[in-house]
Recover the amino acids of this structure.
């Protein structure tokens, strides 16, 4: 067996090296090792970069550099008038990868699509637990079991997905990583030989790159897929050099050991920009850093107290200090790059005198409350401790005393979501699929109380607007409903919207055509390199 | 001799039991939760949390979880990683050669530089060489590894461009893994230039990891030599008119070596601890980085079994050192 493996690896090596005399190679300094290469049960951006965005495709895709849904493995689709039935026409002639461990005998068909969903959904599917301790967190997190009624084959190239209730964001969900389409033929072959775990470690997809090799915690190698349905990509070889420390990634980029890197440390950005061999792209992230007031605990159940607390905070100064030039103050929950963003909203002003007056009118004096600071740095809030100290000082100026509290990260979120949690809680969100529902409903719907609605806020009008927006599929109608939701949100102030942060992507000047993705994924299918 | 080894082995059993308890308890005493750490930003509903808890066996009483863990180990089953779903023993065996390669090279640097430095410092006691060497050793001993590593990268790789920044070998080399030791595998593949590349990648991390052992060995050698040089038999040897090199090299050094060998053995544990930071800075795919990643993911299974495996290896090395010690110094056997 060992000999066989060595021989196979050698064959792959020859295949790669043989064509590599003038091969176009791109090295990406990535930030972490993938858990494995099955995008269904993983949750990290680094997992998705290494699997779904290189090896796999989905029925629908997000456009390059945006969040609009465009055809993928499905070349077209129809949605029934009641919003319950989605019928997808699959693209004919889509090939799965031929690798040293698998040779497909047929093209993509409806069976693959059905299998891709049922393995995550049906507990009696033999693949539901194909690895020990497997859980399909995104399939669950996006409430797919609640929405899905059936996934049926109409013919070889037609699939019908039926929902239990209308859900306009469903299409965007199908563009997400967990919805990647896998090969049923490969799964059957592995089931027959009993090597189920290979499904996660020796992946087979339809994507732009085929998997070549993974040296644990060190290097992932891919080769361009010659029979890719969009046509072979410009690169020949794609390599992920896993480098966990951001300062070391920056050094590797400067030394030419990689061509492009993810997540530079804020302190390194100026130095990278100054390097004449490098380009630093930047883009507003599809994210929000905010601070939830618990609207069920007195005195924050009073909207004027919440307003007063927000008015006391110098948001611009806060953003300048905490995001160090990589953030913009947020007046809405959703970022400006997202459709339905309402630019007419006027933010709660910075007005300490007005804040004092509001507190006085509410009969609140000598208020003391907990101010929660995240123990970790996240793109949407790189330094919550610093933010907490600044807010504490601003509040002190209007007579409010804040006790800063913090816990280990999972513990922090657990305690934060308790319905009766006291105080103001810093947290944030990075969009999954570019749909406003992914922000509004996930973070502030009534049903998210105790899960991810850290304000325990349940407002009837807001709830109606966001639930109605799920049921209609016309974008104009949905925009009108989300505009209303944003107005209510600002009037009710269940949370202080702090900032949307910028994301930076430094790369060598030899990299051509890289577009930054608002969803934070790193994809290389339209990238080229100059020699 | 056999009795000596058996006595040592008998002592190891309670130590192993202690380590299973410590490694099992350590990760559970840290705040945090493996299920929530895995779930990503969506989190899980309370109902689903209960289902997952049962699936992983975290709903069982703690003593039963421990019992299952030990029972698994007795059957050679170290469990399956919560994060990667691969058997922990596979992960360990994949990553361990990288750590061994790094640690051996670091030790080689430490011994090759530390022992001569210590001997010369002892012979020239009080000289400028002695003072500088011991000053540098003290600095080396108190060097924060993370800072030291980054400093070397910025200077040697960034500014001078002499060494690669991180990794084990240039990405242009790609050959089958046989032993997991890059230096050996590159030769098996018949690629001398790959061997050179692997060696170049090894230098900086090995220097960083070897710095503290180097300092300890130099100081230990110096004080052991000083002690021995004051002994009667050394004076006798000198009085006999033996040439100074022979007195130092044979009579003194062989006896001074005994505490130094013990020190080297004890450094193995320190090397494992140092490997955690060194591997993290240099993106070195070894068990130190693996442990850090596993701890941050609250991967209970990987951490408890990984720590146990590391401890077993450190104990095995120490046992070998004890035996070597007994070979060098027959008095130990009798005691």
């Amino acid at each position: 067996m060992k000999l066989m493996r060595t021989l196979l690896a050698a064959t792959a090596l020859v295949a790669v090296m043989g064509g590599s005399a003038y091969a176009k190679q791109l090295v990406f300094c990535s930030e972490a090792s993938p858990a494995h290469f099955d995008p269904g049960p993983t949750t990290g951006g680094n997992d998705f970069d290494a699997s779904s965005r290189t090896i796999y495709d989905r029925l629908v895709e997000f456009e390059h550099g945006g969040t609009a849904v465009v055809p993928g493995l499905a070349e077209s689709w129809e949605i029934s008038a009641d919003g319950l039935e989605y019928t997808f026409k699959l693209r004919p002639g889509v090939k799965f990868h031929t690798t040293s461990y698998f040779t497909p005998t047929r093209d993509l068909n409806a069976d693959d699509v059905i299998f891709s969903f049922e393995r995550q959904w049906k507990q009696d599917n033999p693949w539901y637990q194909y690895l020990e301790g497997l859980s399909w967190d995104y399939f669950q997190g996006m409430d797919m079991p609640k929405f899905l009624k059936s996934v049926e084959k109409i013919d070889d190239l037609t699939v019908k997905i039926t929902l239990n209730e209308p859900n306009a964001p469903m299409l965007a969900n199908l563009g997400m990583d967990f919805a990647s389409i896998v090969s049923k033929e490969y799964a059957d072959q592995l089931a027959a030989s009993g090597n189920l775990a290979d499904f996660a470690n020796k992946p087979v997809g339809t994507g732009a790159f085929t998997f070549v090799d993974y040296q644990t915690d060190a290097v992932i190698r891919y080769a361009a897929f010659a029979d890719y349905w969009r046509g072979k990509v410009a690169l020949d070889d794609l390599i992920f050099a896993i480098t966990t420390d951001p300062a070391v990634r920056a050094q590797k980029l400067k030394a030419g050991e990689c061509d492009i890197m993810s997540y530079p440390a804020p302190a390194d950005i100026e130095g990278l920009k100054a390097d004449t061999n490098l380009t630093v792209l930047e883009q507003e992230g599809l994210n929000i850093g905010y601070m939830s007031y618990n609207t069920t605990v007195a005195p924050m159940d009073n909207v004027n107290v919440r307003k007063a607390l927000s008015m006391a905070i110098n948001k611009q100064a806060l953003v300048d200090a905490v995001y160090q030039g990589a953030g913009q103050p947020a007046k809405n929950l959703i970022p400006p790059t997202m459709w339905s963003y309402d630019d007419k909203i006027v933010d709660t002003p910075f007005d300490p005198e007005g804040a004092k007056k509001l507190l006085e009118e509410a009969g609140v004096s000598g208020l003391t409350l907990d101010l929660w600071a995240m123990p970790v740095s996240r793109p949407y809030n790189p330094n919550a401790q610093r933010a907490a100290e600044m807010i504490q000082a601003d509040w002190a100026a209007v007579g409010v005393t804040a006790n800063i509290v913090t816990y280990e990260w999972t513990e922090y979120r657990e305690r934060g979501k308790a319905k009766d949690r006291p105080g103001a809680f810093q947290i944030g969100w990075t969009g999954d699929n570019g749909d406003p529902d992914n922000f509004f409903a996930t973070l502030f719907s009534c049903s998210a109380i105790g899960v991810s609605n850290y304000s325990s806020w349940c407002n009837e009008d807001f709830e109606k607007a966001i639930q109605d927006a799920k049921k209609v599929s016309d974008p104009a109608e949905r925009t009108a409903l989300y505009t209303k939701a944003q107005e209510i949100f600002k009037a009710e102030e269940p949370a202080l919207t702090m900032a949307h942060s910028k994301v930076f992507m430094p790369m060598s000047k030899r990299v051509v055509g890289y577009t930054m993705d608002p969803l934070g994924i790193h994809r290389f299918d339209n990238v080229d390199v100059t020699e | 001799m056999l009795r000596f080894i058996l006595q040592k082995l008998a002592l190891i059993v309670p130590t192993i039991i202690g380590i299973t308890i410590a490694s099992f308890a350590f990760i559970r005493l840290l705040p945090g939760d493996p299920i929530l750490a895995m779930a990503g930003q969506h989190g899980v509903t309370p109902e689903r949390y209960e289902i997952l808890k049962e699936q992983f066996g975290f709903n069982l009483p703690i003593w039963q979880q421990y019992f299952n863990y030990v029972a698994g180990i007795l059957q050679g089953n170290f469990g399956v990683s919560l994060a990667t779903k691969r058997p922990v023993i596979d992960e360990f065996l994949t990553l361990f050669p990288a750590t061994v390669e790094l640690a051996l090279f670091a030790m080689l640097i430490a011994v090759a530089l530390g022992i001569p430095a210590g001997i010369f410092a002892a012979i020239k006691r009080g000289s400028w060489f002695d003072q500088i060497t011991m000053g540098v050793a003290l600095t080396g001993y108190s060097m924060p590894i993370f800072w030291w590593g980054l400093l070397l990268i910025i200077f040697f790789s960034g500014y001078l461009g002499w060494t690669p920044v991180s990794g084990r070998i240039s990405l242009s080399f790609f050959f089958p893994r046989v032993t997991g030791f890059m230096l050996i595998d590159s030769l098996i593949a018949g690629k001398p230039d790959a061997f050179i590349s692997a060696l170049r990648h090894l230098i900086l991390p090995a220097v960083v990891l070897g710095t503290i052992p180097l300092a300890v060995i130099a100081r230990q050698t110096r004080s052991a030599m000083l002690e021995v040089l004051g002994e009667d038999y050394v004076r006798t040897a000198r009085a006999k008119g033996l040439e100074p090199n022979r007195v130092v090299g044979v009579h003194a050094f062989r006896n001074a070596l005994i505490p130094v060998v013990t020190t080297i053995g004890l450094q193995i544990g320190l090397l494992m601890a140092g490997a955690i930071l060194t591997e993290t800075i240099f993106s070195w795919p070894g068990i130190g980085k693996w442990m850090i990643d596993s701890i941050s993911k609250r991967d209970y299974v990987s951490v408890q079994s990984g720590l146990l495996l590391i401890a077993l290896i450190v104990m095995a090395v120490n046992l070998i050192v004890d035996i070597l010690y007994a070979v060098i110094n027959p008095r130990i056997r009798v005691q």
Observations:
- Chain A touches chain B through 60 residues (CB under 8 Å).
- Residues 146 and 311 of chain A are 40 Å apart (CA to CA).
